[in-house]
Structure formats: structure tokens, C-alpha cells
Amino acid sequence: MELIIYGTFLALSFVAYLARRLANKGDEEKISVSNINFKSFQKSFFLVYFLALLGDWLQGPYVYKLYAFYGFKESEIAILYVAGFASSVVFGTCTGPLADIWGRRKMAIAFSVIYTFCCLTKLTPNFWWLMAGRVFGGIATSMLFSTFESWYVYEHSERYGFPSEWIGMTFSITTFWNGMIAILAGIISNVTAETLGFGPVAPFVVVLLPLVVCGVMVVNTWEE
Questions:
Q1: What is the sign, positive or negative, of the torsion defined by CA atoms of 67, 215, 111, 60?
Q2: Residue 82 to residue 67: CA distance in whole angstroms
Q3: Any idea what DSSP says for residue 122?
Q4: pLDDT (0 to 100) of residue 178
Q5: Residue 122 pLDDT
Q6: In this predicted structure, what is the pLDDT of residue 10?
Q7: What span, in angstroms and rounded, lies between the C-alpha atoms of 129 and 131?
Q8: Rounded Cα distance, 75 and 212, in Å
Q9: Span 162-207, pLDDT tens digits
């Protein structure tokens, strides 16, 4: 049954990819011909951002199951969830101004460090460590959906001076691949936790790889 589900996902993903390519073929060819440097810059952003998205999506499917696996009551699990959401709401208003003051590249590096710490807290059944992880996870989520895109917009417009209408094409690509990455992350989480039998802790170990690589890529390839 799992093979049928995975095969269906892959087939539908391939069809969606072909449809997107056909729909945007004309515009992408124009950009490829008019500015090769833009395509290179675009790909450098995609590589880092997609790793960050993968790190985010890998955690989602097994958060609740992990807490239940550790033996927490539903009321305690609810508190942990509320802490994460509240953290995202409170600190989400600060990430944009902090990026302007501190620098978007440094904020992207901080995202990798904070989210890595968040995942490491999932390896212990201690409630207060898990609470700290939820708070830091909420902060990292806010950073993910503000810092990376703001870095791209600034570099696109201010450093390279590319046409502003090209920004929309970049974000349309990230929107499409965000969905594909979400599906892939769900499959990876399910395979490591269920198929391979490593349990609900496994996705939070696997996620360390894309998060660390994301941070290393920012340090080595991004400019401020």
C-alpha cells in the first residue's frame, strides 16, 4: 500500500512539474537569454532556501506523535503547541526590523543555529527542554518566512539591479517547490519513523543535516 501511495505522489508531482514548466517556458527562456547571471543568482538562493524549507517540513508530521511517545498528556501537549504558536506571533513582529539592523545574512545563519537547537531538544523527554525548543522553533519559523525572502529581494534589486518584475517569477518557483518539498519531507519522515522502525524521534535527527548544510551554505555563498 505504501508503494502505491508513494508512486502516486511521485507521478502527480511529475505531472505538476511538467505543467509548471510548460506554463512558464516562455518567460524563463526570455530571462535565460537576457541575463545568465540572474539565473546563477536565482539558483544560489534556491539551494539555500529549499534546504531551509526541507528542514521545516521534516519536523511537522511527527511533533504530536513524539510528545505522545514521551508519555505527555493531551493538556501538556496543548501547552507545548500554544507556546510555539505564541512565540511565532510575538517574535514574528521583530524578525523583520532585526534583519534590517543586524543583517539578513546573519539572521539566516541564526535561523540555522536556532532551528538546529530546537530539533536537538526533541531528543529528550524533559518537558521544559521541549518547551524551550517550542519557543525557539516559533522564532525560527518567523525567521524562515521573512529573512530569506527579504535577503533575496534586497540582493535582487539593490546589489544586482535586476528588473523588479523578475522577483515574481522567482517566488512563483519557490511556491511550487515548497509544495513538492512538503510531500518529500512527509515521505522521508514516514520512512525513517515507520518503515525503518526508528520511531518518532528519527525525523528530528534526519532534519539536522539540511539545517546544518543550509547554515554552511549561507556562510560560504551569501553576501550581505
A1: negative
A2: 14
A3: T
A4: 93
A5: 95
A6: 73
A7: 5
A8: 33
A9: 888 889 889 988 998 998 999 899 999 999 999 899 999 999 999 9
Whole-number pLDDT of residue 33: 45
- Nearest CA to 137 out of 161, 120, 123 is that of 120
pLDDT at 110: 94
> Do residues 155 and 223 lie in contact, with contact meaning Cβ atoms separated by under 8 Å?
yes
Amino acid identity at 15: V
**Based on the number of CB atoms within 10 Å of its own CB, is 141 exposed (0-12), middle (13-18) or buried (19 or more)?**
buried
For 150-195, the DSSP string reads: HHHHHIIIIIS---THHHHHHHHHHHHHHHHHHHHHHHHHHIIIII
Could you tell me the three cell numbers for 48? 539555500
**In this predicted structure, what is the pLDDT of residue 129?**
96
Mean pLDDT by 10 residues, the chain (224 residues): 68 68 58 71 94 94 94 95 91 79 90 96 96 94 90 90 87 90 92 93 96 95 83
Cβ–Cβ < 8 Å for 129, 78: no
Q: Which of 68, 62, 59 is nearest to 116 (CA)?
A: 59
Q: What is the torsional sign of CA 113, 177, 44, 38?
A: negative
Long-range CB contact pairs, 158-165, < 8 A, 24+: 159/223, 160/37, 160/38, 160/41, 162/35, 162/38, 162/41
CA angle 145, 84, 192 (to 5 degrees): 80
Amino acid at 208: L
Provide the strand spans (E) within 39-116: none
Q: Hey, is 58 helix, strand or coil?
A: coil
